Amino acid sequence: MFELAKAISLQKYQMIVKHTLDIMLQFFNPRLIMIDLKYIQNNFEEASIKLSKKGVGQDVLNELNDLFQLLKAANSKYESMKAEQNKLSKLFGEYKQKGLDTNELKDGIDKLKVQLPSLLEEARIADEKLQNLALVIPNFPDNEVPEGKDEDDNIELKKVLEPRVFDFQPKEHWDLGEKNGWIDFERGVKLAKSRFSVLKGTGAKLERALINFFLDTNAKAGFEEFNVPVINNANMLLGTGQLPKFEDDLFKIDGEELYLIPTAEVALTNLYNDEIIDASSLPLLLTAYTPCFRKEAGSAGRDTRGMIRQHQFDKVEMVAISHPDKSDEIFDMMVQNASDLLTALELPHRLVMLCGGDLGFGASKTVDIEVWLPGQGKYREISSISNTRDFQARRAKIRYKEDGKNLFVHTLNGSALAVGRTLIAIMENHQQEDGTIEIPDVLKKYL
RNA sequence: CGGGAGAUGGUAGAGCGGUUGAAUACACCGGUCUUGAAAACCGGCGAAGGUAACACUUCCGGGGGUUCGAAUCCCCCUCUCCCGGCCA
Length: 447
Description:
Blueprint: H1 10-27, H2 37-42, H3 44-53, H4 58-98, H5 103-134, E1 155-160, H6 173-179, E2 183-184, H7 185-191, E3 198-199, H8 202-220, E4 224-226, E5 231-233, H9 234-240, E6 258-260, H10 264-270, E7 276-278, E8 284-293, E9 312-322, H11 327-344, E10 349-353, E11 365-373, E12 378-387, H12 391-396, E13 399-402, E14 405-408, E15 410-418, H13 419-429, H14 441-444
Parallel strand pairs: 4-8, 7-13
Antiparallel strand pairs: 1-10, 2-3, 5-6, 8-9, 9-15, 10-11, 11-12, 12-15, 13-14
This protein binds one RNA strand of 88 nucleotides through residues 26-29, 31-32, 72, 75-76, 78-80, 82-83, 85-86, 88-94, 96-97, 102, 105-106, 108-110, 113, 276, 278, 397, 404, 406.
């Protein structure tokens, strides 16, 4: 997922957002979409401890709180004066109807009208400043999320399946891919640029088989299949948290406020953008296959060889829109479902709880699933399941109605699974000494 | 890309300068009736902010303007629908 900016300072925040937000606000009205300011205000200590896990300094929270107070003060000043004006205008109408003299009223209104614009402007500026800052504050991590800086501080929860012992030197997937004629790296680069590749023959068929296998299995777990646009507008990317902070990671359509999605999470979650869902229809379990597009801006030099880190890759994604009371339960189910997919493919893997520093921007809790790659002799991420609690729901205005009240849902997302990396894992784990690859039984009926 | 129409609450659909946050219908929720359900009748029913609760503010696609006052008038933008061209 996205790299979290470390050691974030106020100035850096303001610089990062200014440009993108300016552009976006030309096209979209700035609705009040942000983290829970009231919670921060009422639980300042707790909030700052939580956010420090994600590297947010206390100065940022102080600034946020000050802006919030400023906005409230400016608003109430403006609103009471506006109320006065509305009252007089109403009277004006009545006077006119009765044929009374309105001159005095008009004078009163005129006096108020001189002051109103500056008060409104004051409130508007406070609101804009507040939002600029609030939109780049990451989600609060759960209490169970371990302290830590980076992936070295993540905690292994469990291992599933023992890595196979090879009686020969296992090859890396790029060797196997070329030897079997499944992957053509050169021509992928020719067609687009580096970090693109071409699958062919059985490689291409396996990719398709995996997609179908994943979708079918997810359906059995209760997820409804969707086919969604892979181009989404800026407002949707704002809703799930990719914008404004991570624009550099996205492919943008030239001249339009449209982006290629970096994950189907964006489209699936935002299906319910600005909607109020009846509590009785929760949870909504959604799944979709899409290609995903990422600039990998911060990853220069990493995984340049092979198919691990591409600008375009296939993924089957799960998304859940959940009642707040049920999201932990659903989270566990999603982790289990993703893990079961790997088990069915006979791929050794482990579950890892991400530490605060490695947690994504919108996540309050994330479990990564890492698959064993014998060629590299390492576990590598193949799925990432996150509970964002109400973080995305607030931004995307996804609510549910219960007992007449509108409340924010919880949203969750997780890969099930990254298709290209699964293909790699199959090649490396099920390779034979002669370089051929044994296809797992569950896939055979899909070929 | 060219020509026409439109954008109002969950949906349909009135309103076209004042007390209309918005008629009406359907949907939905509560009640009466019923063994239970349906029907009928009565009542409620958009959202955000704000408040202890009221008050109050904002929102009729988005932005700006006219006016004492705008869902209603004017300008710009976006989107949708119909007709024509192009095209999977």
